[in-house]
Amino acid sequence: MSIQASSSxxxxxxxxxxxxxxxxxxxxxxxxxxxxxxxxxxxGPNGMNQDLGITAAQFGLASGVFFIGYILLEVPSNxxxxxxxxxxxxxxxxxxxxxxxxxxxxxSSLPGLYTLRVLLGIAEAGFFPxxxxxxxxxxPARHRSKVLSLFYLAQPLTVVFGAPLAAALIEQHGxxxxxxxxxxxxxxxxxxxxxxxxxxxxxxxxxxxAKWLDKEEKRxxxxxxxxxxxxxxxxxxxxxxxxxxxxRVWMLCLIYFGFIYGLYAxxxxxxxxxxxxxxxxxxxxxxxxxxxxxxxxxxxxxVVMFFWSKDASRRGCKTWHIALPALAGGISVxxxxxxxxxxxxxLVISITAxxxxxxxxxxxxxxxxxxTGASAAAAIALINTLGNIAGFxxxxxxxxxxxxxxxxxxxxxxxxxxxxxxxxxMLLLNASGKSKPAQLAQEHSQ
Length: 446
Hints:
Layout: H1 3-21, H2 23-43, H3 48-52, H4 56-64, H5 66-84, H6 86-103, H7 110-124, H8 127-136, H9 141-152, H10 154-170, H11 180-202, H12 215-234, H13 240-244, H14 247-275, H15 277-281, H16 287-315, H17 320-335, H18 342-363, H19 373-387, H20 389-405, H21 409-431, H22 439-445
Helix pairs in contact: 1-12, 2-6, 2-8, 2-9, 2-10, 2-11, 2-14, 4-7, 4-20, 5-6, 5-7, 5-19, 6-7, 6-8, 6-11, 8-19, 9-16, 9-18, 10-11, 10-16, 14-16, 14-18, 14-19, 14-20, 14-21, 16-18, 17-18, 17-21, 20-21
């Protein structure tokens, strides 16, 4: 066997072990994370809004205030992860948000709901960018699109499986003398605490600590990662302060904003839109049927994302792997409102969901192409922080515009506009030459 063939076999074996050992577990954490933060979307139209006397605008605000604490603590949390290690920090985050999420089962007023949503954002701050950074630190750049796409599958699958799960829990109305939506909060919160505790024993901070890699796999992986980091350092690697004031990083923030605005507008309001099918089309669905229908666009999105990211991994991630989905999403969002049957509406919404999820894992390969260490942690957290302002905006503006117009037409037009802006900015970023890996370092050295 030649040295090249031997090296290829070691590479394949190492990446396979990482994909089987780390990615599914971190994806499970992400599954629970997204389910807990969007549980309010299932609770709202299934008793919570009525029990607490909440309007659409108040529901949107309650959905969005989650991001206040989340945004403020995102960058400090990711820097803490870099300093203290992913294993302890991700476990701490998960256990914290599980405890806060559990308290929703006993919320009794709108101010209490607002308070708990802010506290949930504070508890969850840093998890998503921390998970992205953690997985990026384990594989060379050429494998990141594949690994991140496998991780990202957890997000659409959260709704595919989470919506029926939430519906099943809501149908346990009366258990423990509690309303169904309160039972749902109990059911989705306890796993976060349990898996958070398991995280301390399952994750390891670096390849050097991975006992499940053999000596050759460990040697190859460490060597490849060190060579990548050295190449980045050789182009005058920028400081954290430089990253935080760099135009390219802020452009990535704006691109991400459009995707996240679309993601959370769907996540928070799709169950409500489906509940409105009865008035719009005269079609009635029970709680479980609505849960299954909610999952359909996300199941299609999971399949599309897998194959789209596989193509990006095979060709190398291109600008059009991100810009084309943004364009498709921007066009399909408002188009869904003009369909004349529930099935047609859901199929068009499926295009929107597929577009968002096709773009996101490929987008996250961009920051680690030119950054490492603390600067990578800061950039990823900053992009996620500023992008997640869209999480607040999507909830609040969608609810407010719906109350003002008594329709979802204008709110969804806004969603489409932001996604089209993301497509345009991605093309401008590429055209300006700022998509080249060395660009940020060159700017820093000038």
